[in-house]
Specification:
eight-stranded antiparallel β-barrel, 122 residues, alpha+beta, 8 strands
């Protein structure tokens, strides 16, 4: 007999802080977040649309060297409601509906936010 001893996870109140935007630029997604700019190349955008993790690159690294190493990744959450973007171990989130609208040309940009536990200063 198998007994499940796991307890359900507690729900934590989360505050979303708008910190930047993601825009479509010549088929790639440019992510502008306060002091940093990153890009998801066109080939990786296709992977993201197919629910595979996509590599994220720092724009300044790509401009210096075409073979730059990725600084993070982006993926669609299990719930299918958001795109998580991890850049240098910092996580950002963008609503999937806004990202899809941006990719179709229906929106100019998608909001990018950080998630902070409620009551904790950013």
């Amino acid at each position: 007999m198998v007994k499940n001893t796991m307890t359900p996870t507690t729900k934590t109140d989360v505050k979303f802080e708008h910190i930047g935007a993601a825009r479509l630029y010549n088929g790639s997604v440019r992510i502008d977040v306060k002091t940093m700019q990153a890009v998801i190349p066109t080939s990786e955008v296709h992977k993201l649309e197919q629910h595979w993790p996509a590599a994220v690159y720092d724009i300044s690294d790509v401009m210096k060297n075409a073979d730059a190493a990725p600084v993070g990744k982006a993926w669609i959450t299990r719930s299918g409601k958001a795109v998580m973007i991890s850049i240098n171990d910092v996580q950002y989130v963008s609503p999937l509906a806004q990202v899809k609208g941006m990719l179709k040309g229906e929106r100019k940009y998608a909001n990018v936010s950080t998630m902070q536990p409620a009551g904790v200063p950013a």
